[in-house]
Amino acid sequence: MDLSNIRIREHFGLVTNNANSAQFGFLVSPPTNRQTVQKQDIICFDHPIYGPECQAIAVVKEVAGYEEVAGSTIRDRVGKFVATAQIIGYFDLREENRSLRKLLVSPNPGSRIYIPYASFLEDVLNRGVDGRPYVQPLSLGKSEIFAVTPEGNSQQVNVYLNVVDLLSRNTLISAIDGAGKTSLAKTIIKELTRRTNALVIVLDFNGEYNADELSLEKGVSNVSVGEVALKTEDDWLEALAAKAKESQVIAITGRNLPLDERSERCQRIFDSLVKGRQEKRISPFLLIIEDAENLPQKPIEQITASKSGIATLLITSHPTFLGGKILSKISNYIVGRTNDPQDLSFLNNTVAGTDELLFCLGAGEWVINGLNMVRPIKIHVKEQLAKSS
Question: What CATH topology corresponds to 161-381?
């Protein structure tokens, strides 16, 4: 099999005897004029049984140096490096749908270690669990994974969300105040409107989603719950249907609205949206809810349980405040810096499989995971939009 578009031709090391089906060590020996392997690099090797048709990938967890006596005296010492890698899984290159499979055998001692190209990593990591490529990939930013191009340049691997998953499941954005939650949501809105015709409705009582910041082609239509006399569900449906004809993004605002009135209006809004979908008076939409933990749980439980073409994106600083019923319906997680012990306990389980410390993440840094993602990945959101929320 031709692997010239998969990995660099020269090998970068040899597997040692210290190997099992979960991790292994290898002696680092990069080719001449090639940069050596580093911590967090992705490496690949031939499947121990199936050979080069199945490429296994692993992430370098540690690189350590040691000295070896090369001659008859102790002065004849040579500095060398040995690395430890954690196995991620393997892909069958003969199949069109390259799903990540678990490696059940250990690498053979002496097996060669290679560096995969960035294009190969982007291809296999941006697929669903069934191995199918994302039909509509939504660009969020870049991972911390650096890989080489066939031209010899080093670049970060791009990371995408599957638009289909975003528009058909419930998603949670969670981080402390100032980590960039609202900026991230705006990035998602901009990417969605560029690539799809999906309707986006934002419940934003603080008025943070305005046309100037989003710079959308069709602008943002605003419906103010504090100024417009929308008393019945039909009133809301007529207003939203009219706004949907004007713009792809509708922001339901309520600045200066007392908290007790927000609860009542929130229930009425959600009832109207569910009714609108059941009667097909509104097209399927993504509902973005800002400060979800400050709203009553019951209407959010109802809207997240709806199966009538409503996907939600909940934005919160304290996910555990939402309660178990709501959290059990979340399929996709985008997690930023977190300090609260209870939130950390919950969120660490949602991104299991990564070594990232959530309380150490900076502004614009996120760990994403989902039911249809190959593995959790840390990303850096596009710089121009990764501002503090």
Answer: Rossmann fold (3.40.50)
